[in-house]
Design brief:
Blueprint (H helix, E strand, L loop, with lengths): L6 H25 L5 H26 L5 H7 L1 H28 L8 E9 L4 H4 L4 H12 L5 E7 L3 E9 L3 H12 L10 H14 L6 E8 L7 H4 L1 H6 L3 E6 L4 H14 L3 E4 L5 H11 L17 H26 L2 H25 L4 H21 L37
Parallel strand pairs: 1-2, 1-4, 4-5, 5-6
Antiparallel strand pairs: 2-3
Helix pairs in contact: 1-2, 1-15, 2-4, 2-13, 4-13, 6-7, 6-12, 13-14, 14-15
Length: about 425
């Protein structure tokens, strides 16, 4: 046994990791909102494992530095047959399993399924949003909501009106009923009372409490009002209900500061929007980010800093790395390579998990770069680990007593090479 490396295998493994990343990102964009997240995650890791495995297999066929010429001559047909089952299929299933576990809600954690739209309808909106794009944004969002969501709509000026109590949007007919109520709205000439709007919203959330789900608020305003936010937000913080705030064409810094504070103290996000036509995009982004939690994307919502999910992502990537390394050992039918690649996969998966956990930020381009880096770590560290854990070549049984190292027909060689699993 000896420590050695196949430079071509390392290079090809990195190339395979890059190709797997490109294909995975394409599928993530194309199917990310159409297929269940556990399926998309499984496909991503399955494709990545297939590309890395294929690249490593080709590299050893060209330059059999790790597994030996005997393997190339006698076993490559079986290696090709094992390639897809041990990479694409195995990692697809494991990726789905780990994503499913990652989606579980620990303890008393409840999924965010109830959305409250709290929309400023004061007189100043006549100038800020003359075309009522805020209501268009609300209607577009309702049309895109999942069937297991509930939505409530509140509008406010100096008073608060519960336009639509919590109602399930299980089908288009239910959505159309809510949209019809929004269509009936006209801008008032009243003032702005953000504090009262928050108090009345919390009252309705308490009245409509559902034991198996949690709520989230989207509040839009163009104004400012004196608000005792410590008192008003106490229940929101206690119940971990995020208030995402949108400041539309704010002129006074006090309004922006108030909305920023409301979002910060409740775990929500604040958005400064200058053009009302951008509101549909912002509403949709808030909705898409509600409690978003996958192994491949930034975790958002109340569980963003939860230790369970921090450890869970890293542990899942560690096990995925082990599985990728083991799959390579199976392809080459070499238990020593399987051990080396598996341990390397554990280290690679641990590092990749840390990179994803602390590198993902929610930015589309930056997160893609972070995932690319994680893919390169998985591909590179696994290929390098034969320098750490010694391996043997895989020389299969041959026949003939006239060959060097043979004691007779059908005898095993006296060398110390590996004979697979």
């Amino acid at each position: 046994m000896q420590r050695k490396i196949n430079p071509l295998l390392l290079l090809f493994s990195l190339v395979g990791g890059g190709i797997g990343f490109v294909i995975g990102e394409f599928l993530l964009r194309q199917w990310g909102t159409g297929l269940p997240v556990i399926v998309v995650t499984g496909i991503y890791f399955g494709v990545l494992a297939l590309c890395i495995g294929l690249a490593c297999l080709v590299a050893e066929l060209i330059s059999p530095r790790l597994n030996g010429n005997s393997w190339r001559q006698r076993y490559t047909g079986t290696s090709w047959k094992l390639l897809i089952p041990s990479t694409l299929v195995a990692l697809f299933l494991l990726g789905m399993l780990f994503e499913w576990v990652y989606q579980l809600n620990p303890g008393s954690t409840k999924p965010v399924k109830d959305i409250v739209l709290v929309i400023d309808n004061s007189g100043s909106m006549i100038e800020t949003d003359p075309d009522q794009d805020r209501f268009t944004a609300a209607k577009n969002l309702i049309n895109r909501m999942d069937k297991d969501n509930r939505v409530a709509v509140m509008v406010f000026d100096h008073a608060t009106t519960l336009l639509q109590p919590f109602t399930p949007v299980k089908n288009q007919a239910a959505k159309d009923e809510v949209i019809a109520k929004i269509n009936s709205l006209t801008t008032s000439d009243g003032g702005t009372d953000i504090s009262l709007a928050l108090e009345d919203t919390m009252s309705h959330i308490r009245e409509s409490h559902a034991a198996d789900r949690s709520a989230m608020v989207i509040m839009l305003s163009d104004g400012f009002s004196e608000t005792d936010h410590e008192r008003v937000l106490a229940d929101y913080k206690q119940q971990r209900i995020a208030v995402n705030t949108i400041g539309l064409s704010l002129v006074y810094t006090e309004g922006a500061q108030l909305l920023q504070t409301i979002a910060d103290e409740t775990g929500g996000q604040y958005y400064d929007v200058q053009n009302a036509t951008d509101l549909s995009f912002v509403f949709q982004k808030i909705y898409n980010d509600v409690g978003d939690r996958t192994l491949l994307t930034k975790r958002t919502g109340a569980m963003e800093d939860n230790v369970y999910y921090q450890v869970g992502r890293i542990a899942a990537l560690l096990l995925i790395g082990v599985a990728m390394g083991l799959s390579l050992g199976l392809i080459f039918d070499n238990r020593h390579l399987a051990l080396s690649f598996s341990v390397g996969g554990a280290v690679a998966g641990l590092l990749a998990g840390v990179v994803l956990e602390y590198g993902l930020s929610g930015g589309e381009v930056k997160d893609a770069v972070v995932r690319l880096f994680a893919c390169f770590i998985l591909a590179g560290v696994i290929a390098l680990f034969t320098l750490v854990i010694p391996v043997k070549e895989n020389n299969k049984l041959t026949r003939g007593a006239d060959r060097p190292g043979r004691t007779g027909r059908g005898q095993r060689s006296n060398d110390s090479t590996s004979r697979g699993f």
